[in-house]
Amino acid sequence: MSTFDKESHEAMSIIKKTYKDQVVDYVYQLLLSGDLSPGDQLKESLLAEQMGISRAPIREAMKELIMNGLVDYRPQVGNFIPVLSPKQIIDSYTTRGVLEGFAVMETCRQFSGEDFEKLDNLVDEMARFAHMSNHKMVVQVGGEFHDLLISKSNNGQLLEYTDRLSLKLHILFYKHWGRLYSPEEIGARHNKIVESIKSQDLDRIEKTVREHYIETGTKIATL
Amino acid sequence: MSTFDKESHEAMSIIKKTYKDQVVDYVYQLLLSGDLSPGDQLKESLLAEQMGISRAPIREAMKELIMNGLVDYRPQVGNFIPVLSPKQIIDSYTTRGVLEGFAVMETCRQFSGEDFEKLDNLVDEMARFAHMSNHKMVVQVGGEFHDLLISKSNNGQLLEYTDRLSLKLHILFYKHWGRLYSPEEIGARHNKIVESIKSQDLDRIEKTVREHYIETGTKIATL
DNA sequence: TCACTCCTTAATGTCGACATTCGACAAGGA
DNA sequence: TCCTTGTCGAATGTCGACATTAAGGAGTGA
Fold it and tell me: Does one domain contain both A191 and A207?
């Protein structure tokens, strides 16, 4: 039907409508490209000038970035890209491990044979891309892996927090993810998670996922 | 010294400075007093008129309320007090239980004899106030109890989320807390937590705190 | 009666200008 | 030298007005 076509067309072309959303994406790009580094200040006037808009939508975007932990706000002073201490890095990853560990544990019985097949394939892909030093694809496939892990949970509150955390950690540290572990280690570490789910041992699952993230955080914190 | 006196005086008198903070507090009061109920819309123009200020600080305040989960934002439509379904209530309490359960478990060895004395006293107080049907004090002492429980944790990321969750749940449901359980049940439920910490059994501690909150959420969800 | 279109209304989204406040640096005195 | 004080610049905080858009009702046709 034409109605559907129209809707899907709109969905494709007008994904970003308000200036606020464009600003958020712009800042994400600045961070991912390295043009913006921890400690840098985001000056509203400067951003407004660069994007050819007023400060109002800039301020709106700042609030969203603050909510997602990608900007530190100091009243009457300004907005800064956060500089995470080693402990703060570990804390963030630990919290993510606590939340996702619970999510996976709680939903472990919903994983089908097809799901396990997908998970195994994703692990293989990660190891293969790691062997080819294609760090970008390692990160992408790793994202799919973790998305599938928590996809069974329908705890909206928990997913809200895990989404925020994974976004924050992705933006701030994705550059390191591909080089943290050897291809063999990457495969082994993620296989460990899949195996724990297959075991249906609740405590083991939760502990495995938790330690996976704590290990990752500890490693990043020591870079 | 006069320097100290001056600082403490300032800290006492100039707590609320910006209009934004005043708006946030104003909305909290509206919620706590019942003048604002789930489903109600917060119209920027109306709030601005009521407080004699412009819409700019109102919008700033909305962002903070959204971040804390006390306002639902619908683009181009407005800001609404969230209407939580029974499942959403349970999800929120479950998530709080997961986070605080981990926090308490991880710090259980730091509780001193003095801490346990305080915890026991707080439980007694709660039961006593419950017997007197002083629901307000039950809630307040309960807050002190839970604050002490997580006070040992220095995981900033985890505390950030637990603070947001406890604030949200307090604002939305504090009215019910005093009447959920009998005085005996209140004492028993909280004693169970203290006893688990005394046992130093990590799994038991985490499980106890978790179930404490899931139970509470389930009970509130059925009201 | 029902469905569709148009229009009005009221809310949010954005703008440019002004007010306020923090931080740094320079000047002065113990 | 160190501490205090005053000034200045630059950034955020706030304002009132205008632009844009979503929701609901009036009106028309079958």
Answer: yes
Nucleotides of chain C in contact with protein CB (under 7 A) are 10-17, 21-23
Interface A–B counts its CB contacts (< 8 A) at 56
pLDDT tens string A103-159 = 999 999 999 999 999 999 999 999 999 999 999 999 999 999 999 999 999 999 999
Q: Please check whether residues B50 and B72 belong to one and the same domain.
A: yes
The predicted-structure confidence for A162-177, as pLDDT tens digits, reads as follows: 999 999 999 999 989 8
Round to a whole number and report the distance in Å from the CA of B90 to the C1' of D3.
58
Domain end position, chosen among A61, A80, A99: A80
Per-residue three-class SS string for chain A = CHHHHHHHHHHHHCCCCCHHHHHHHHHHHHHHHCCCCCCCEECHHHHHHHHCCCHHHHHHHHHHHHHCCCCEEECCCEEECCCCCHHHHHHHHHHHHHHHHHHHHHHHHHCCHHHHHHHHHHHHHHHHHHHCCCHHHHHHHHHHHHHHHHCCCCCHHHHHHHHHHHHHHHHHHHHHHCCCCCHHHHHHHHHHHHHHHHHCCHHHHHHHHHHHHHHHHHHHHCC
Residues A52 and A110 in one domain: no
Give yes or no for CB of B45 within 7 Å of strand D.
Answer: no
User: Do A28 and A94 sit in the same domain of this protein?
Assistant: no
Of residues B60, B95, B155, nearest to A161 (C-beta): B95
Q: Which residue is nearest to nucleotide C12 (CA to C1')?
A: B76
